[in-house]
Write a sequence for this structure.
């Protein structure tokens, strides 16, 4: 069983790392599609308890916004990104695709993409290192 784990954990780390890298690259590729900005109003902030770790449950926030583009209202849409303390009535700038305003993104796509790529690279490198170590031990 230990041999299987010594092989499986590094492989999973590599897969996870590559997945993050691909997600980051895809974000960079779609960055130019989000070509317009609009100010949205926060209409609901919902606390969601993540109790997958029973000993250390965490609380996440789901933020919902309303915005309007070319006279069309988009209501109670989950916000694509936010930071800090937010409350109902606050405003935030979001990016949207002028061809399809229902597709929105946070303001800093490049920064998010860079974080995804960096995390993916670290995970993949750790996975490769662990796999090399496991092969040498055999």
């Amino acid at each position: 069983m230990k041999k299987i784990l010594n092989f499986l954990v590094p492989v999973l780390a590599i897969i996870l790392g590559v997945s993050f890298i691909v997600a980051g690259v895809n974000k960079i590729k779609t960055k130019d599609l989000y070509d317009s900005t609009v100010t949205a109003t926060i209409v609901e902030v919902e606390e969601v308890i993540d109790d997958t770790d029973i000993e250390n449950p965490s609380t996440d926030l789901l933020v919902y916004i309303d915005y309007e583009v070319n006279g069309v209202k988009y209501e109670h849409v989950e916000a694509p990104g936010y930071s800090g303390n937010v409350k109902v009535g606050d405003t935030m700038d979001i990016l949207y695709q002028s061809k399809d305003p229902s597709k929105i993104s946070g303001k800093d796509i490049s920064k998010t993409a860079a974080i995804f790529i960096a995390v993916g690279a670290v995970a993949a490198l750790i996975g490769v290192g662990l796999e090399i170590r496991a092969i040498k031990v055999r």
Q: What stands out?
A: The chain is about 40% helix and 35% strand. The chain has a mean pLDDT of 85. The first strand starts at residue 36 and ends at 50.
